[in-house]
Amino acid sequence: MIKVSIITLGCKVNQVESEQIGDALENLGFSVSMGLSESDIYIINTCAVTNEAERKSRNIITKVLKLNKNASIYVCGCSSENNADNFKKCDNVKKIIGTKNKIQLVNVIKDDFISEIKPFEPKNCDNIIRVSERTRADLWVQNGCNNFCTYCLIPYLRGREISFPLENVKKELSRLEKIASEIVITGINLSAYGKDLSDKNDGLIEIARLFRNSPSRFRFSSLEVNIISDEFLKELSSFDNFCEQFHLSLQSGSNNTLKSMNRHYTKEDYLEKVNLIRKYFPNAGITTDIIIGFPTESEEDFEESLEFVKTVNFSEMHIFPYSKINGTVAEKFKMIAKNIPERVKKMTEIALKNKYDFINNNIGITHEVIIENQKNGYYLAHTKNFILCYIKSNETLKPNSKYNVKILSNFEDGAFAEIIK
Ligand code: SF4
User: Fold this and answer.
1) From the CA of 331, how far away is ligand 1's center (Å)?
2) How buried is residue 64: exposed, middle or buried, by Cβ count under 10 Å (0-12/13-18/19+)?
3) 262 C-alpha vs ligand 1 centroid, how far in Å?
């Protein structure tokens, strides 16, 4: 059997697309594995979110050739859309396909390897997900972005916002809920869901409504603050299976920096939305991404950002030192930000303290978790508000099954918890 390895870098949407390609190839009779392993064919689904991500994407080819010097390599994704020439120079690369029509790789590979089988017909958001039980699966509902943040190339690489029709999403959900206990609603700019659909619709909440009688619990991937409103939160609070975690991209807590990033809110708008979330979900996990050392971020801007982060009290933060990306508007900004490693250190200290406090505030509270895997004698599982729990249990706990736990203390990078009968 011909072996295919699919290596995925970057965002959740890339992961979903890799799954779709993998499933289609498996249906054609290829043996598919995710990640770098010895194979005949390699698909590298690349990322261009930073110059570092682009470098990593190219390095994978070197690793592949060490494993199999005769490998056939196919490259897709944002880095190949942005810089196809970088990959053309690499040995054994047979095709570079960019971002727009990745699923076409299935037919390209089929033609290169087994021409006698019937063609695969790609359908929008209507592909087959690998049928194996899992804790979490991504429901991809939207592609593209119209926001044009000055540090990001995504609107140029993936194109403008497109929402997948509700009927297609519904079909995909009915497949996913048979195999996954938790579903993450995913998109490039998820908050824009529905804006481009011709049928009258209520936007992203329409997707949440599909979960009304679902056996799976659900959460959103990343949201923009503009989606948060009384109506949105009120309706979400009526679901028993909604996971009260809101990943709200902040990027900076300084109004000057937000403006030069072309983010469409101020820190005051952001805080108002956080307070609204806490009105409906007092114990919500509020998580975020933040960029440190954006070119225009002065010392004062950074201090303002630091203070703002303390005020919000995030349960978890992903902190990224700014990385220049060729072709962005920000590439041309004069670099005035200094002492970036020191700033990252200061921000990380706040993030760790806030996370510790959030977990402390959850001690003694009962949470529903779904068992994911085991590590060093502990079962690992996440609560609905996204606390990673380490659970000791004398009885065997079933993977992908729901249990109630009580949080006992901070532990490792999460919490220590016990099963409640
Ligand atoms: S919202 Fe901004 S950072 Fe996110 S994909 Fe769109 S342009 Fe890029």
Assistant:
1) 16
2) buried
3) 10
Q: Output the six-digit token pair for 250.
A: 């902040």
pLDDT at position 326 is 86
Residues with CB under 6 A from ligand 1: 145, 147-149, 152, 154-155, 188-189
Pick the closest to residue 19 from 186, 246, 153 (CA basis). Answer: 186
Place 322 in a pLDDT band, splitting at 50, 70 and 90: very high
The predicted model gives 387-400 an average pLDDT of 95
- Full-model pTM: 0.88
- Please give the CATH architecture assigned to the domain spanning 366-420: Beta Barrel (2.40)
Which has the closest alpha carbon to 283: 255, 242, 250, 325?
242
Ligand 1: residue whose CA is nearest its atom 1: 147
Q: 3.10.20.30, 3.80.30.20, 3.40.50.1580, 3.40.50.1260: which CATH number matches 134-361? A: 3.80.30.20
Distance 248 CA to ligand 1 centre (A): 12
Reported CATH class of domain 3-113: alpha beta
Given a cut of 60, whether residue 360 has pLDDT beyond it is: yes
Q: What's residue 214's pLDDT? A: 97
Q: What is the pLDDT, as a whole number, of residue 127? A: 40
- When the pLDDT of each residue in the chain is averaged and rounded to a whole number, the result is 92
Which of 95, 68, 69, 70 shows the shortest CA–CA distance to 80?
95
